[in-house]
Amino acid sequence: MTKPGEVNLPNLFQPVEWGRFRIKNRVKYGACCVSNYNTRDGFITARELARTRVIADTGCGIITNQGAYPDPLGEGKAYFRQVAIFDDKFLPQFEMIARMIKDNGGVAIQQILHAGRYGGIDLGYCIQPSIVPQTLPHFRPPREITKDQIRETIKQHADAARRSIKAGFDGTEITSFMGYLLATFNSRFTNQRTDQYGGSVENRGRFMRELIDAIKQATPENPLVVRLNGAELMDKWGGNSEDECFELMQQAADCGVDMISVTVGWQEAPESSIGRDIPPGHWNYLAERAKKLLPTVPIAFGQRLPNPAMADQCLAEGMFDFWEVCRPLLADPQLLHKAAEDRMDEVRRCVGSLNCLSRLFRDLPYTCTMNPALGHEIEPECSITPAAVKKNIMVVGAGPAGMECAVAASQRGHTVTVYDRSDRIGGALFGYASNDIANRDDMLSVLGYYEAMVRKLGVEVKLNTVVDPKLMRELLHVYDVAVVATGARLDRAQLPPTEDGVEILAAIDVACGRSEAKGKVAILGGGKIGLTLAESLAVRKVDVTLIETGKRLAGDVIPSWKWRHTAWIDELGIPAVTGAKVIKVTREGVHVIDGRGNPLVILADTVIAASPSVPEQQLIHSLEWMVDEIHPCGDAVSPRGLTAAIQDGYRLGCRI
Amino acid sequence: MTALPALSRWQSLLDRHSTLFGDLEDGCRIGIARRVDVNQPGAEMVVWEAVEGRLIAVLRPFPGYHNTGVDVLLVGDDDAMAEMSSELEADALPVLKRLVRHGNFVCYVLRRQCELIEAGYEDVLQSMGVAFAGACR
Fold first, then answer.
1. Mean pLDDT for the stretch of residues A318-338
2. Which one of A91, A311, A312, A545 is most buried, by most CB atoms within 10 A?
3. For residues B11 and B32, what is the distance between their CA atoms, to the nearest angstrom?
4. CB–CB of A267 and B102 under 8 A?
5. What is the ipTM of this complex?
6. Residue B7 CB partners (closer than 8 Å, separation 6+)
7. What is the location of CATH 3.50.50.60 in chain A?
8. Chain A nearest CA to B6, separation (Å)
């Protein structure tokens, strides 16, 4: 039976033929992230299998399993716990994954990932066509690949493809996404060879053509997908122009590939490609160009295209053939099912924080800001299971920690009431989301999700209600559990002395519109809160200066966003005084000793403090003899931010 | 094609910013080369070399990316070299930072992050706009 959302998104949910396969819809799960859940020697773990079970159930017509490295030495291995496929000994778990995908009606594709420039993680070197040093110190120094090694590498890919099919996969994929080995051959930036593999686009594409040919010969009955950049974003550094990228696509098509997945950017590219600072739909023109160039080759695309409705429209316009999704399905693995059932308001959107990638490049397993269960699917204690004893729970604080806890606890069968002294849900997140210059709609969607879920689950939300001992006396014995998710507050005891009559505003009050910044502004604290507010004020043409006691700005910012904030500070012309000791605040402004020991006065009409903050825990002690169970949660335990708040709230909701 | 600016002009810049470079250990080397010289026989690069607490600008052979003998290598396109050359006597470090950010200079790192930090590079690289931010943007 057709579901209501399928009617609204007829192109997305339209079954299509792809070679000998009938695909149930036009969605391809993209292998965008290596999970780092596996053993150091490349074996797939039970944790990975549990995660893959969730992926298999996403409802995508085609599902690409994460990239496995094809060489026994590990020159192609980019991540400490990446899976390997250089030997039949790895096959039993691959067989299980292929079976899971097919049992759910998907076409199973195995990606073969030789990371090239980003590989050799255990070796202390990487291989690439020419010696072009790294621009990111995380990666290994390069060695030039010899012709013999090229031949061996191609054979390893073909063997890996044969092995994938033997494991039960329907097809394979090779990838030049983000600067992996294939990309380094294709790109002028890293390929400076003078033999038949370097020089002209024709020569640079030779490795790709030989690779495609070898895999097609090894697995002639099975489709091969190749991921190719529509734009490397490396052209300023001497990399390929977009025109050259499309010449390479033409070469791949001429070699008979069965699908081209159009991607954007390299890991080290000097500009954004997938963060939320890139507006949804920004890169669609690349897919459109690929489709026009190669009308008979199926084109998959999805970079910064997180919305099923937008994807459906693109499909209707013939921009591409398959919507390739990964990160939105990390954030909400039920995205497609919810879209099919017209329950898009219940979707947890990917907010493009790139927590997933930040973790990978710290050699940690990937996790998701929005999906606290991701990576913990195997752990029953991180799953929504019916509560053994149904309890009446009060959650104090409607920020992300409190709301997440309320949703999880309610899904387990508890009766939940949320209290907040404010007139809206969201806590501090509302203020900072409203000031996010990258994409406030993405951040505010977090609150939209919670609003939809509490409505659906029947969680009562009592706004404009201060929970204090007086109220609690009225509610005595009503609740079995109190969750204190009251967030953090500015620690005024640590603020510098002020001249009589001078007030230092709290950043959260300015961010939420409860206080107004007038005239020249100085912000104390150059961490993520101070930066977000300063950027937002600067965009509104407010003259703002940041004052940071630490040596550097952005000390508490997630690694994948640090560069973005520091670039914004420069682009917006926001002056920053770092290594500063704040002496006092007067009507004139902020008196500091700068990092070189020089006294300075930062002229300011308004002084805002973004730090230091302390957990708001007073209620925990007040409630101690009034409620059976009391649990602090989120920033009320320790001020950290959105990811930790959601994790804390979810885990507590699963546990009560 | 803009030539590499004269050593005396680089030295003057380094001396004006001696505090910034003061943390660099002796033997630290930052190379500056032109993109057109990559793989050109006989090409040269300017090297800022830390000697007894001071950075000295010297001219060294630029053998392309092999065996450069530097810890950090800045390779600029012609626009970058022209702009740096015109700004060397002014406030050139913010200009360099902007040119790195805009991709006119590529900053290659030839030592590991922890080694660079231990050798005192943190402030220097920050001033050049090189954030060790990690990958995938």
1. 97
2. A311
3. 13
4. no
5. 0.92
6. B46, B57, B58, B59
7. 492-611
8. 24
Give residue limits of the domains in chain B. 7-125
Ranges in chain A annotated CATH 3.40.50.720 = 384-489+615-655
Homologous superfamily in CATH for domain A4-360: Aldolase class I (3.20.20.70)
Q: Do A236 and B102 touch (CB under 8 A)?
A: yes
Which residues does A322 contact at the CB level (< 8 Å), separation at least 6? A23, A26, A27, A28, A61, A62, A259, A298, A299, A300, A301
**B82 near B65, Cβ under 8 Å?**
no
- Return the pLDDT at B134: 47
CB neighbours of residue A258 within 10 Å: 18
**For residues A176 and A211, which has the higher predicted lDDT (pLDDT)?**
A211
Give dist(CA A118, CA A140) in Å, integer. 7
Cβ-based contacts of A265 with chain B (< 8 Å)? 137
* Residue A561: HSE in the Cβ half-sphere, 13 Å Cα cutoff: 23
Average pLDDT over residues A303-313: 96
Predicted confidence (pLDDT) at residue A422 exceeds the cutoff of 70: yes
Does domain B7-125 correspond to CATH entry 3.30.1050? yes
Tell me which residue in A135, A270, A596 faces B109 most closely, judged by beta carbons.
A135
In this prediction, what percent of chain A has a pLDDT beyond 70?
100
Q: Which helix (H) or strand (E) holds A506?
A: strand A504-506
CA B54/CA B51 separation, integer angstroms: 5
Q: E strands within B6-136?
A: 29-34, 44-51, 54-61, 72-76, 105-109
Identify the weakest region by mean pLDDT among A411-420, A490-499, A565-574: A565-574
Q: What confidence category does residue B132 fall into, taking pLDDT thresholds of 50, 70 and 90? A: low
Q: Identify the residue whose tokens are 């060695």.
A: A143
Residue A524 pLDDT > 70: yes
Q: Is the pLDDT of residue A77 over 70?
A: yes
Please say if the pLDDT value at position A521 is more than 80: yes
Query: If one looks up domain A492-611 in CATH, what number appears?
Result: 3.50.50.60
Distance (Å) from the C-alpha of residue B11 to the closest C-alpha of chain A? 23
CA distances to A85, A111, A249, A372, B130 from A31, rounded to whole Å, are: 15, 7, 20, 20, 29
Confidence of residue B137 (pLDDT cuts 50, 70, 90): very low
* pLDDT tens string A80-131: 999 999 999 999 999 999 999 999 999 999 999 999 999 999 998 999 999 9
Containing H/E element for A245?
helix A242-254
Contact A137 B116 (CB under 8 A): yes
Nearest-angstrom CA–CA distance, A347 and A153:
42
Where does the pLDDT of residue A288 fall: very low under 50, low under 70, confident under 90, or very high at 90 and above?
very high
The reported pTM is 0.94
Least confident range from A188-202, A504-518, A529-543, B115-129: namely B115-129
Note whether B110 contacts A: Cβ–Cβ < 8 A: yes
Contact A238 B116 (CB under 8 A): no
CA distance B116 to chain A (A): 9
CA distance B137 to A275: 6
Residue with tokens 């990937």: A366
Closest CA of chain A from B74, distance in Å: 10
Q: What DSSP designation does A622 have?
A: H
Least confident interval from A133-147, A351-365, A597-611: A351-365
Location of each CATH 3.20.20.70 domain in chain A: 4-360
| Sheet order of strands, A415-419 included | A460-462, A415-419, A392-396, A481-484, A629-632
Rounded Cα distance between A649 and A639, Å, is 14
Provide the 10 A C-beta neighbour count for residue A468: 14
Q: Does domain A384-489+615-655 have CATH number 3.40.50.720?
A: yes
H or E element at residue A98: helix A91-103
